Each structure stands twice: as structure tokens, then as C-alpha cells.
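Input (structure):
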């Protein structure tokens, strides 16, 4: 089974699947299961307050 098929079955993008696989190789299931909500931060995060203010009424 190819990586794209595995990703589709898992409901994630191929890039996310590759990230999970790398984490598994470096730390096993424990590493994959760790929750890290700030793993990939956008460059826009430094403008978060300004962006939010623009959408407020």
C-alpha cells in the first residue's frame, strides 16, 4: 500500500502522514500520540490580533 493510500485511509493529507511516520521512526507511538497544537505556526500568527480586529464589527 502506498503512502497516499494510507493517508487517505487515515483521513489526513500525505504531508501529515509523512510527519506522523517521521515521528514514529524517532519516538514510536508515544511520539505520534503527543498533542502539540503549536507545532506548525503560520507567519501570520504575529499579526493575529490585527487580523481578529479587522473581522470584528
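Output (sequence):
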Amino acid at each position: 500500500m502506498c503512502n497516499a493510500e494510507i493517508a487517505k485511509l487515515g483521513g489526513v493529507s500525505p504531508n501529515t502522514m509523512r510527519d506522523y511516520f517521521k515521528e514514529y521512526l524517532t519516538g514510536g507511538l508515544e511520539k505520534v500520540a503527543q498533542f502539540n497544537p503549536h507545532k506548525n505556526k503560520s507567519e501570520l500568527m504575529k499579526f493575529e490580533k490585527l487580523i481578529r480586529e479587522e473581522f470584528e464589527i
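Notes: The mean pLDDT is 84. The CA atoms of residues 7 and 29 lie 17 Å apart.
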